Structures are given as structure tokens and as C-alpha cells.
Amino acid sequence: MSSRELVVLGTSSAVPTKQRNHNGYLLRWDGHGILFDPGEGTQRQMVRAGVSAHDIDWICLSHFHGDHCLGVPGVIQRIARDGVEHPVRAVFPGSGEAYWRRLRHAAIFNDTQVVTEHPVDGDVMPVPTGGAPFGLTVRRLSHRVESYGYRLEEPDGVTMLPDRLARHGVEGPLVGRLQREGTLTAPDGRTVTLDECSVPRPGQKAAFVMDTRLCDAIAPLVDGVDLLIAEATYLDADARLAEEYGHLTAAQAGRLAAEGGVRRLVLSHFSERYGEEDEPRFAAEAATVFGGDIVLARDLDRVPVPPRLRQTDETPTSR
Q: Which residues bind Zn(2+) 1 (predicted)?
């Protein structure tokens, strides 16, 4: 199993269908689990997907429309029932705190108090990650209610080059010391720097963009990400409805991915107005403007984060 993958728990928008549950997306990242927008039925979808309450470290809500949050009570109570001991951080729009309270305490249960609350406000805000191997930033989007997009970003690092290390006589514990300190004296007395024995390694990135019309805040969220989970509620023929109700079309999601240099685009949050026969059209419309990898999300899919780019690799470009 990949240490960095998306587990798709639901892909429908306002109304679930026979084939699609309400929203729900678990991003696994090096042993951390970030659950985005758990809609109604998420707890059962977790069972079907083989996801445990112990796999959840974060619950991140974009906004408080029901298809993005009505699964919160079941998930919270499952965390308590299953005896999860590690902290679970809940991130949500501060303007909807009253709704969070109702969801958080929707029924009687033996609360274990492992869930801590982190309401967000303002146009852009970093979220404290408590030592997680990534940073998390939210940006306010443009929907009918306050809604936020998320960007997860691994710090940049370096890739050590074995041939150069050998050339300088750096081996064993000296390699780790060079990484930590940036310079050292080699066994032959020469000074060796980290730059001489490594190349830059850009950190991997992911973004989650749901329930928004086109707006300026999307670009910095999706810029250069390896994985973008984006709503594609409507097809282009219904672009007027998308604008009116604060949503994206598949083609708009594709254009955002192309402009941001995204590597893999996951389309989801499909309106119930479309049937199974319409599904190929979502990917086809996105592909008219985006030349990268496109995944048409289906419930219970597992989508790996693309392998890390080598220095010579190229990112996708628009068509």
C-alpha cells in the first residue's frame, strides 16, 4: 500500500445516488490520515474501504453544506467508540462554529476528548500541524456560504548522490552529519559541502478544492501540486448553473490544473442530474485543456500520489 494515497469514500454532490455516496476523501500521507468533507454515510464507506477510525488524524471541512459535513457525528462517535488515543484535529470555517457544535454533539455518546478544534477565518491562514511531515494552509473560496480550500505541502529537501559522496569519501554516519550540518571535514582533510553531494528535492504537494466558482484564491492553492482533488459538479453546457450556485465545471477544473502545473487531477463531486452514461464526458471536457493525468473518481477508488519527480522530469503542460 502506498504511503501517500487518496482513498475516495464518496463522490456525489448534494444528493447521493445508487452508485455514489455523499463526499468523503481520506488522504494518507506518511502515516497521517486527513479526512476531508465527510458527508452522510462516511462511516459505512470507511468500513467498505477498509479504513479505521484509528487512521484519522485530521478532519478538514471546506464548509457546512450537508453533503460535506453530515458524516461528522458518526465519525466522531466512531473515534470515541474505537478508543482512538492519538489527537484528532478538526479544521473548519470559524463562521460555522455553531454548526460544528451541533454535529460534534449530535447524539449521546461517551466522548473521549481526543478531538481538538481549529476554526479558521480570514482569506488565508496557516494551520498548526503539530509536528506532522507537512504544512497545511487554507484559503477562502467563492461559494454561497463561507468555504475554504486546503493545500498540503511537504518541506523541500535534498537527494543525496551516492557517486559524489563516494568521490569525497563521505560514508556511513558522515552522510547524516552532512545532511544535518551542511558541511564537514572529509577523512582526507577536505571540506565537503552538502551542495557538492546532493541535488534539490522539491517537497510533494496536494490540494483540495471543493464547492467554489472560479476565483483568485484557487491559483495559489493548486500551484505546482502533485495531486489536486477538485469538484467538477457540472459539465460545460451547464456553466451558467455552476456560476449561479458557486461551483466548477469539469473544463474549469481542467483549466485550473493546466494553469497550475498540476500532475494528477482527481475529478469528483458530481451532480445527480447526470447519469452513468455522462461520466466519460467529465474527463473528456477536462482533457480538452489539461494534458496531465486525469482520474474520474469513483467511490472506494484508491488514487496514489504521483511518484516524486526526479530533477530531469517535466511537469505536465496544457494542450
A: 63, 65, 143, 211
Cα 114 off chain centre by = 22
Mean per-residue pLDDT pooled into runs of 10, the chain (319 residues): 87 96 97 98 98 98 98 98 98 98 97 96 94 95 98 94 93 94 92 93 96 98 98 98 98 98 98 95 98 98 90 43
As a three-state string, the secondary structure of 251-286 is: HHHHHHHHHHCCCEEEEECECCCCCHHHHHHHHHHH
Strands 88-93 and 198-201 come out as unpaired
Give the residue numbers of the binding site.
63, 65, 67-68, 143, 211, 269
Q: Are 295 and 301 in contact (CB under 8 A)?
A: yes
The domain covering 4-156+202-304 belongs, at the CATH homologous superfamily level, to Ribonuclease Z/Hydroxyacylglutathione hydrolase-like (3.60.15.10)
SS3 content of the chain, % helix, strand, coil (to 5): 30, 30, 45
Amino acid at residue number 279: E
Is the pTM higher than 0.85? The answer reads: yes
Q: Give binding residues for Zn(2+) as ranges.
A: 63, 65, 67-68, 143, 211, 269
Residue ranges, comma separated, of all CATH 3.60.15.10 domains in the chain are 4-156+202-304
pLDDT of residue 275: 93
Out of 30, 37, 55, 67, which one is annotated catalytic?
Answer: 67
- Please state, as a whole number, how many other Cβ atoms lie within 10 Å of the Cβ of residue 36: 22
Active site residue 67: yes
CA distances (Å), origin 224, targets 4, 131, 205, 262:
17, 23, 7, 5
Q: Are 234 and 249 in contact (CB under 8 A)?
A: yes
